[in-house]
Structure formats: C-alpha cells, structure tokens
Specification:
By secondary structure, the chain is mostly helical. The chain has one domain (12-439). Helix content is 77%, strand content 0%. Helix 4 (64-81) runs parallel beside helix 13, helix 4 runs antiparallel to helix 15 and helix 8 packs antiparallel against helix 21. The radius of gyration is 22 Å and the shape is globular.
Length: 440
C-alpha cells in the first residue's frame, strides 16, 4: 500500500499514515508481533516514513491520557496487593445469598459497578477466583457443570465489559478517546460529564445481560449451598479488615473524588498518578510490587495507539477515509443522524470483536469523528460501542482472562454474545436519540 501511488485527493503523509494503520491491523490480527512490539513499530514507522519528526512522535506518545491509564493500572496493582479481592468475595456472598440466579445478579451488577472505576481486566482478575471456587466446590468435574461454569464466569466478564464504559477510568478505549478530544481542543470533558452520558446505559444493560445469560445457560444447580458455605469459611479465615486495608480503601475513594472534582484543572492522569504516590508514601505498596504487577507493554501500546490516531487526524488520513465512506453511501450518512450513528455502532462493534476495543478506538476514532455530526457524540458512540466485544474470547481483556481459566469454551461467548451485541446497540441508539439531547 505504501509503495502504490497515492490518490490525488490525499497527501503523501496521509497515505503513508493509512499504510502504517493497515500494517498495524495485519500485525494485530496475525499476532506476528506481541502487542508491545506493535507499539514500537508504530513509533519507528512514523519517523522512518517521514510522517512526523521524532520529537513530534515522542510528544504524542506521552499525554495526560497515557498518564491516566498508567495510573489506573498502578492503582489496580496496589488494590490487589492489599488483598481486597478476598474481602470483595465475602461481601458478594453476603449480598446475594446461595441461589444461582441471585449470584448471577450480584456478579453482573458488582462487576459492572467496579469496572467503571478500576478497569474491566482488574475486576475480572479479582472476581475470577470467586467464580472458579463456586464452580469447583459444586463439582470437581467441570463437564458436569458446563452451563453453570459459563453462566457464572460470563456474568463476571459481561458485567465488567458493560461497566467499563461508565467513566474514563473504565478502560483504555475511554482514555484513547479522551486523548483525541484533548488534541482536538475539547478540554471540557470532565470525569463527571462522561458519567452523565454513559452511566444510564449501564443501568439499562445490566438487567438485559442477566436475563440473556440466565436464559442462554440453564444451570445444572439452582442452589449452591455447599459451595457458598465452603467459600465463606475460606474467606473468613483471613480475619478482620486491617488498618492498611481501610486506608487503602480511603485513598482510592480520595483518588476517585479527585477525578470528579479536579480533573478539569489538573487532568485525569495527574490525579491518578497522585493516587499512586499516596499509596507509596503511606507504605501500602512498594514500587517493586507496582513495577512487577503493572503491564508496561499495555501502557506502551495505548500510547502508540493515541499517537497513530493523532497522525491520522493531522495528516488528513482519517478525513480521507471518512469522505470515502460517505461517497460510498451517498449523502445518507451526512444528512441522517440515526443512520450515521447506527453505521458507526455496527462497524465499531464488528471491528472490536475482530481486533480489540483499544485498537478499534485508535483506528476508528479519528475516522468516525470526521463522518460528520457532533464530535463529542461521535466520540462517545465510538468508545461505548467498541466495548460491545461479547462475541469472541480474544476481543477484550475481560473475556481473555475468563477464557484462560479453561472452564468456558469459545462457543459460549458467541451463544450469548450475539444477543448481548444486538441489545447493547439498540439501547445505545435509544440513549443517543432520547437521553443525550436532554443533557447536551
């Protein structure tokens, strides 16, 4: 693509940026390079192909959005280090009781709420031991509880995915879109404003997810008395909540309060980094623990995704793709907002289930913004619909972690995922047409 003559209606740097984007897609799909390697390729290719100078590329790699996702991952490592995941297990059981249906309600709801603030992958990592313990304490042979396994574990995964769009700290896709808005000059998108747009959708999706899961996977056991009793004993052996754990909870809520009240003045990233600093200062976690449990390759990939998206915007590559799509559909996408929004939801959902939500926002974010309409609305639609990665096991960190347990099959994701995808798109369309006009 880079060697082919570029069309006359796009600049050479724009064409080369699209070439790099196409190569990135190939590398991600083929898994020819680890994701951190793809990030390094993006940086090198931009400079070698003359898309931007090295100083420019370096500046786009580090932004408040990158600080934000880095701080969020560090906070998650600190929370797990304090053993709060075990306390969470006991709290869930006390709330839900022993019935399978109530456990599903509890897992979906709690996973959704928590993932809004600390990321879906962290929540799944915290709740997966709870689900696996319930399954193993019910039956030692997983083949005898296939539906129960899928029901409980997908409740965790889908709940976490649903909730991850609720705030900017819910996932990388949100931070990437937030970074695009900052680059375009939209500095008024605060933590609370994002919540006002996205959280009503979460509240709508939760009951539908519970209904779909319970009707897709009929559990072999309607009551898990024995399993819950064993898990209660195990968690209770941990003793009472320690002073350090109480301080850890307090510092997290202090950071959360900072995201709400100080993000417009300080930026989400600086608030997140300040929260991590407090954990270290008070001796709740050592730097060695944060360094060991933070995925630096993921942070590098997010930085590269933002950098590539910025260059697609600056070189005109994103605008050219948007204009090409508009030309294929005539004036329909320009003049029909519902059709344009629906088109963005479908193409974003399909790509998110093929690649990943973060990569999808990095690539489609600048393109969708140039399709027309309000950039804020377009950005929300892109970020939110990229979270509808219910269909495949590799589409999101939450589903990958669940699949790695060996207790669910890839076919389980598709059985429930297509229903979740259709319902989620319909609800998002409803929110964009009815609710958002009231708050904009």
């Amino acid at each position: 693509m880079n060697l082919a003559p570029h069309p006359g209606d796009i600049s050479l740097t724009g064409w080369r940026t699209l070439s790099v984007t196409a190569m990135v897609l190939i590398l991600i799909v083929s898994e020819a390079l680890p994701l951190a390697g793809v990030a390094l390729f993006i940086a090198v290719a931009q400079v070698v192909l003359g898309i931007a100078r090295s100083a420019t590329v370096a500046s786009t790699f580090m932004s408040d959005a990158v600080f934000f996702i880095m701080g969020s991952l560090m906070l998650a490592a600190a929370i797990i280090h304090q053993g709060l995941d075990a306390r969470l297990a006991l709290g869930i059981i006390r709330l839900t009781g022993n019935k399978t249906s109530r456990l599903v309600i509890g897992l979906v709801t709690i996973a959704a709420i928590l993932s809004s603030f600390i990321g879906s992958h962290t929540v799944v990592a915290m709740l997966l031991p709870v689900g696996m313990s319930l399954i193993r304490n019910t039956s030692l042979d997983n083949k005898q509880v296939t539906n129960l396994s899928a029901l409980l574990l997908l409740s965790i995964a889908y709940g976490a995915i649903i909730g991850s769009v609720g705030t900017p700290s819910g996932g990388a896709r949100n931070a990437i879109m937030y970074g695009y808005w900052m680059d375009l000059g939209f500095h008024n998108i605060t933590y609370l404003i994002w919540m006002k747009h996205a959280y009503p959708l979460i509240l709508l999706e939760i009951p539908f997810a519970i209904w779909i899961l319970l009707h897709t996977f009929k559990p072999e056991y309607e009551n898990l008395d024995s399993a819950v009793r064993k898990l209660k004993v195990k968690v209770a052996h941990g003793g009472v909540v320690t002073g350090q754990q109480k301080l850890s909870i307090f510092l997290f809520f202090l950071t959360f309060l900072g995201w709400i009240t100080l993000s417009e003045r300080l930026g989400l990233g600086i608030v997140a980094i300040a929260g991590v600093l407090l954990y270290i200062v008070f001796g709740l976690v050592k730097w060695e623990d944060i360094n060991r449990n933070t995925n630096w390759g993921v942070i590098l990939l997010f930085a590269a995704a933002i950098s590539l998206g910025v260059q697609m915007q600056r070189t005109g590559g994103a605008l050219w793709v948007a204009q090409s799509l508009t030309a294929l559909t005539g004036d329909l996408l320009i003049h029909s907002e519902p059709l344009r929004n629906g088109f963005m939801m479908i193409i974003t959902t399909v790509m998110a289930n093929t690649l990943s939500s973060a990569a999808t926002v990095a690539i489609l974010g600048p393109i969708n913004i140039n399709l027309g309409g309000d950039p804020i609305t377009t950005g929300y639609i892109t970020a939110i619909s990229s979270a509808f990665a219910y269909f495949t096991a590799h589409a999101a960190p939450a589903t990958m972690i669940i699949y790695s347990s060996g207790m669910v099959r890839s076919s389980h994701f598709l059985r429930a995922g297509w229903r979740m995808g259709l319902v989620s798109m319909a609800l998002l369309m409803l929110v964009t047409m009815v609710y958002w006009p009231l708050i904009l």
